[in-house]
Predict the 3D structure of the following.
Amino acid sequence: MSAPSKTEREISGLMKASKVRKIIIPGRGIGMSSAGEGLVLYQDLERLLAESDQIIEALKTKFYAYLRSQPLRQKIPRVAFTPSEVTVLLNTGFLTSAQSRFDSANTFTSPVKPGTPTSIASVSKAASGSMEAIGGEGAVHRAGGGIRGINVHGNPPGSEEPDRDIQLGVSEFQLALPNMGPYLRLLFAARSHLISLIKKSRYQEAPLYLLRERWDGGISADDPAAKAKKYRGEFAGVLPSKTRKWRQFYGLSFEWVLAECLGAGLLELFETRSVGQAARIT
């Protein structure tokens, strides 16, 4: 990025004009490799809302209108929507907790009051293989866990337990996109694989042509000589479908992964003056 301040000002202007929306992605990755922010076009966000058949039209209109009216707001207050509306938006992946304090160890090892669905007495009496044997449907979500899970309704009427939302301080949510998890897993796996390829070199740096060959899995080149050998039956390379690029990363291009690593600050480019550009780990 030659002029980051100029880019940031342009992004800020597009956000004020309700052209793009910033999405916060906390807790993914380590250090500089963490994807902390993302941008989505409002037209794409509107399309995703329109394609969701689990959200009624009134809620789609209300949610989209709220995002348009608050273009710079990163967190959405809980009072902006009713508990039932929040539940729908959480379940469809358009909202996530602004601060997750869920700890699976505390949830499943801490003492539980008798009579609750997750108590030892209740679970031990349930039929093996049933939902009740694991605390009932949505046990983890009611406890405040899961990728979408927090208890937006509070405890049942008449319960002596205080509202778990008040205990956790869950008062704000963040905008999210449906099915963003698989994309992020692919992103971080691709980054890690490219870094592992460059670490195979002695000084943790390699020319781009060599790094590209490693990423492609050592398949034959796409030049006329290689094609002629293939036509003559002399092809001795690796089939593309057998490489990790296609088996694990679905054909992700080398240039795209390289740009991601450069943007994350994991790699830097330099001129070798002999074999062209090369990359090294920062």
